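Re: the request from the purification team.
They wanted to know what the chain is likely to look like in 3D before they choose a buffer screen. I agreed to run a prediction and write the result into the notebook, where they can find it.
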Amino acid sequence: MNSSALVLERVDAGDRAEFQSSVLAGLSRMPRAIPAKFLYDAAGSALFDAICELPEYYLTRTEIGILRQCAGGIAALAGPGCALVEFGSGSSVKSRLLIEALQELVAYVPIDISRHHLDETAQRLRRDYPGLRVEPVCADYMVLKALPAGLPLASRRLGFFPGSTIGNLEPDEATAFLRRVRGLLGREGALVLGTDLKKDPRRLHDAYNDASGVTAAFTLNLLSRMNRELGADFDLAAFEHEAFYNAAESRIEIYFKSLKRQTVHVAGRKFSFSAGERVHTEYSYKYDDASMAALARSGGFEIVRTWTDPARQFAVSFLRGVP
């Protein structure tokens, strides 16, 4: 392993012990829920990349379009000599727009829970940007307490949290995350944050229920992962993906749902499901100007500038830490 691939607070996607304990705990309580981070093993990460290419899933292409337009503005606000720190980097497609725009970039620090995905991304970036220092961190960014000790000192650490991933966090979790990020980025740090905006519920429904079934496969891959890694015996044909918009909470809710009364074994434990019973896997909160500003303040930031697409479907904001 390259010495620069420092692992802090390591939560590898293949860490079956944590996966098992979280799954057993989540299936033992009512209502049942399994943390969304476990959707992103190697197969899940690849499926999510496929979701981002779907015609119904406007989020990725809209955010990329905004970033293409505002990357220069972000670079001007950030100033030269930054270290770019991406939380939940995935394949780092969007971060390339910032890597190419930022002046005198001293390092790129992609943080991701999937070791396989992270290593592949780091290799591609080192190949495509041979002069760039790449410091991958395999970690759960929700519990990360420090960045690589060898990270070059920079006038500012610029965090990057795209994809409206902040929407996957419940309000108290989002606040706690932003406060942690505020500490990781330091006194002079700033954050580029992508947020999905409130819109027509039909548009939202279609984005999470694509006609080709890729999002359903992404959700049900969690069952396949439990079968592979925990010796479970889920019959995928006996469950389905379910996603809907909860207008009262301003969020998409995602579940896998049992289609019949059945019993499933997981890691030697037996769990009974009733017909129609749901297991929660993910939320996706949607924001407007007021709720974005409130979220930033709760995490110790202020919004300096926000860019949106003409239809105001998505927003990219530059946040600066408040003293």
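For the purification team: The chain has two domains: 16-39+202-285, 58-199+287-321.
Please add any questions underneath this entry.
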